[in-house]
Design a protein that fits this description.
Layout (H helix, E strand, L loop, with lengths): L1 E2 L3 H20 L2 H8 L3 H9 L7 H11 L3 H5 L9 E12 L10 E8 H7 L6 E7 L12 E5 L10 E6 L2 E10 L2 E5 L8 E4 L5 E11 L3
Parallel strand pairs: 2-4
Antiparallel strand pairs: 1-3, 2-3, 4-5, 5-10, 6-7, 6-10, 7-8, 8-9
Helix pairs in contact: 2-3
Length: 216
């Protein structure tokens, strides 16, 4: 279920948290501004209503500094029933082939049951949703599917599927350990393997793919 947000309501919730933090121990606006890497004037304009928005990426950084969980901020958007957490979906695309769409801005939040979140990684802040473009992982992950990645699960286990970076491109591949190297395989046998050394600076593992959804 997608969380339908309005920027003004989201900003209001963030300001409530900001005021609570100022009253609860941060002290001066200058001290808080330094921690957030903004000017005290920015905080004053936020509180006075002169600035009424921020992009999602900056807001997530601010909340991280303040120790505010996504669930704490977005709980007022939920129905009365409990038991759900929110997972962010980013604009970046994982290439089942390759992708140069690497924008990390959040494009939406999706609600999942807490027991599912525990199964996938235990904390919604460790999880992120990506859309997939390309056919190299078909039939397992078709073009246009959405995958859920656990960003903390980066220790490669042979045969598992991971979100990876190869040079400047984002990919989703099945990884296999061989002596001194990793082999990135596609489930589509028409696509060639990619081999990288264990110390390759142009390669990194973002996390393990734990779940996928496909559009009909």
């Amino acid at each position: 279920m997608r969380l339908a947000t309005k920027s003004d309501a989201l900003w209001g919730l963030f300001l409530d948290k900001l005021r609570a933090e100022l009253a609860g121990g941060w002290g001066s606006q200058a001290r808080l501004a330094k921690a957030l890497n903004v000017t005290p004037g920015n905080i004053k304009k936020w509180l006075d209503g002169d600035i009424k928005t921020a992009n999602f990426q900056d807001m997530l950084r601010y909340m991280d500094v303040l120790g505010i969980r996504l669930d704490d901020v977005f709980k007022d958007f939920t129905p009365d029933e409990c038991g759900y957490g929110y997972v962010r979906k980013v604009q970046a695309r994982l290439g089942a082939g390759s992708s140069l769409v690497t924008n990390g801005d959040v494009e939406g939040l999706y609600a999942f049951r807490q027991d599912f979140i525990v199964e996938m990684g235990g904390n919604p802040d460790n999880l992120v949703l990506f859309d997939v473009t390309g056919d190299s992982m078909e039939p397992t992950i078709p073009d246009g599917a959405t995958v859920l990645v656990n960003l903390r699960d980066t220790d490669v286990r042979s045969g598992m599927i991971y979100a990876v970076r190869v040079c400047d491109e984002l990919m989703v591949k099945r990884l296999f350990r061989n002596p001194g190297k990793l082999v990135c395989k596609s489930d589509n046998e028409a696509r060639p393997d990619i081999e990288v050394s264990g110390e390759d600076a142009d390669f990194s593992v973002f996390g393990r793919v734990r779940w996928t959804a496909r559009r009909m």
